[in-house]
Design a protein that fits this description.
418 residues; alpha+beta; Phage_capsid-like_C; Phage major capsid protein; Phage_capsid
């Protein structure tokens, strides 16, 4: 088995070697040194590819252990309930597992009553399942794990501010832009003047996202036993699909009958001159960076966002002394940087093309993602699926996203039209 730690140590050694060459040749960065640094970066790219493959295999090998951890966290969620609530929640969870494996026809009347009534913890909020249509609210721990799994996919959740709510009512979120406000110098015995901040609100709602119907063969449902956690299997399948579609809308959604993505909400920071349909200049990136107010540039969430294809272009860019703008981090805790700032790879970002808003810069944490905890799962075992020896499942989740700031914390670089 490939030793991931050994690969990371190799990468760190190469990063240190490159940094030493750059730091000790600040005034005499010759073409020969540039060739050395470029060769080291190519080696780092090769090691990175090995690490990605090794981590992917380790994730596959570790799914069982991860599922055990999920079960432990679900148990912890039950422990905070009162004895009566815990007993009801345990009964609900058991009924839900039977629903997954056997379907409605395999449930007792008591189990159906439990599932139709909805999760015990939601009784006061009036949330009920949609049993008449074949769908039920997932258990609290189950839904929490699904939403937790969403973080592993896409780029937006790794930088945005994520809030979770029990219901899906529209939330009016207050906004204020203080970047243009300042105090005053007051003479002795003179009163202070007033300058109220300009407040606004942005409504963040709850759009419906589906996993689309995915199927599971009869054999997997029938062969329940040690090492087979059907709940975890279904949860991962649903999370993967929902996460990907949400990341797309949270990135490029128009804001009309769908979330407003961060690209749509951002302001123009720099537009490339004619001929830059698939390129960007170093000066463009400097202009983009300085189009964002210094108050936002000083925030912990500041950084770049772009597609991996764009990173491939940016890695080849040099400053006026021919020094590379991309710098590898020494360790996994210290991220790679571009022009001094961390960056996020988001495969839903537009690639560089005519008029594409291909690069973002700013405080990405000003973007808010709102998750509604009430996730509904449907099971289909009609002739469409049984004739193929399968059972269908469909998950519904609700959420929204928007740039929740009255200022301009994020700007984009737009490639030229021609």
């Amino acid at each position: 088995m490939i030793n991931i730690k050994a690969l990371r140590d190799q990468r760190a050694a190469k990063a240190t070697e490159a940094r030493n060459l750059l730091d000790t040749n600040t005034t005499t960065y010759t073409a020969a040194i540039g060739v050395q640094v470029d060769a080291i970066y190519e080696e780092i790219d090769r090691i990175d590819e090995q690490i990605v493959r090794a981590e992917r295999q380790a994730k596959i090998d570790g799914d069982a252990a991860a599922d055990e951890g999920n079960q432990e966290r679900q148990q912890q969620a039950l422990n905070v309930l009162s004895p009566d609530e815990r007993a009801k929640a345990v009964a609900y969870n058991a009924a839900f597992r039977n629903f997954l494996v056997r379907g409605e026809r395999g449930l007792t009347n008591d189990e159906i009553t439990l599932l139709v009534a909805g999760r015990p913890q939601n009784a006061q909020s009036g949330q009920q399942s949609n049993g008449a249509a074949g769908g039920y609210l997932v258990p609290t721990g189950w839904g929490g794990e699904l939403l937790e799994a969403l973080k592993a996919f896409g780029g937006m959740r790794s930088v945005a501010t994520v809030v979770q709510t029990a219901g899906g009512n529209s939330l009016p979120w207050p906004t204020v832009d203080e970047t243009g406000q300042e105090g005053e110098l007051v003479a002795e015995n003179q009163p202070a003047s007033a300058q109220d901040a300009s407040f606004g609100t942005i409504d963040i709602g709850a759009f419906k996202f589906s996993s689309k119907i995915f199927t599971i063969p009869f054999e997997l449902l029938q062969d329940q036993g040690p090492g087979i956690d059907i709940e975890a299997f279904i949860r991962r399948a649903a999370a993967t699909r929902i996460a990907r579609v949400q990341n797309r809308y949270y990135t490029v959604g128009t804001g009309t009958n769908q979330p407003r993505g961060i690209v749509t909400a951002a302001v123009a920071g720099k537009v490339g001159v004619a001929g830059q349909t698939a390129t960007v200049l170093t000066d463009d990136l400097v202009d983009l960076e300085h189009s964002v107010d210094p108050a936002y540039r000083a925030m912990p969430g500041v950084g770049w966002m772009f597609h991996d294809n764009t990173l491939r272009v940016l890695k080849k860019m040099k400053d006026s002394q021919n020094r590379p703008l991309w710098m590898p981090g020494y360790t996994t805790k210290e991220p790679d940087t571009f022009n001094g700032y961390k960056y996020t790879i988001n495969q839903q970002m537009p690639t560089m093309a005519a008029n594409a808003k291909s690069i973002l810069f700013g405080d990405m944490s000003q973007y808010m993602i709102r998750d509604v905890m009430a996730v509904t799962l449907f099971r289909f075992d009609d002739s469409t699926y049984t004739s193929r020896g399968q059972v269908g499942f469909l998950a519904w989740a609700r959420g929204d996203g928007d740039l929740m700031s009255a200022g301009q914390p994020v700007a984009y670089y737009q490639n030229s039209a021609s």
